[in-house]
Amino acid sequence: MKWYVIILSLLLQGGFAVPCVKASQADLEWQEATGLAKQGENDFAFMGFRMVLEDYPDSRYSMAAEFAQGEYYFLQNNLPMASDEFENFTTKYPRHEEALMALAYLYQIAKNQHHPDDMKKYRAKAATFRQLAFIFSDKKIFNFLSAFQRKHKLVSYIDKVELYVNGRLFTEIPF
């Protein structure tokens, strides 16, 4: 009888002292990087996102970390690197809504750099991104909080796509 009491008390003590779910190392690195982004430490956050990609390339954070690479370069006004990162992103994740956001960034970069041929290319890709059916409404909305804590809202219409960042229209791609 004493053994049952001892074992039961040890189990109860251990159950309350140890959390049931432990964060993985990828979770911890991601939380640290996004915490730096929240503090406005974008350079250090960028390095953290790169470490997540290097150390945990198949983690659930990979896609968001890869999008963050392009976003970081865009925020730094390094448009050639941003273009490269977003191009790679759209190639790797061609059917995710985030890829359409990356296409919107690419369109805006081409517009900023006065490259009409690239604008046409990204317009065509955005138009054929996915056959969108608007049976019950005239638009489709996708919200995304980036790793750099910027609120993205993608609004797809039959004839255009609008991307809002932090509540302001970032770009519009007419079809």
Please give a structural write-up.
This protein is an alpha+beta fold. It has a single domain, classed as Serine Threonine Protein Phosphatase 5, Tetratricopeptide repeat (Alpha Horseshoe). It is built from seven helices and four strands. The protein has helices at residues 2-17, 25-38, 42-55, 62-75, 79-92, 97-112, 116-127, and strands at residues 139-145, 151-157, 160-165, 168-174. Helix 5 runs antiparallel to helix 6 (97-112). The protein is globular.
- Measured between the Cα atoms of the first and last residue, the distance is 78 Å
The helix-strand sequence is: HHHHHHHEEEE
Mind describing the biggest β-sheet?
4 strands, antiparallel
Helix content: 55-70%
Structural class: alpha+beta
Oligomer: single chain
- Supply the number of structural domains: 1
In the CATH hierarchy, what is the architecture at level 2?
Answer: Alpha Horseshoe
Content of β-strand: 15-25%
DSSP strand tally:
4
CATH T-level topology: Serine Threonine Protein Phosphatase 5, Tetratricopeptide repeat
> What is the assigned CATH homologous superfamily?
Tetratricopeptide repeat domain
CATH class: Mainly Alpha
* Overall geometric form: globular
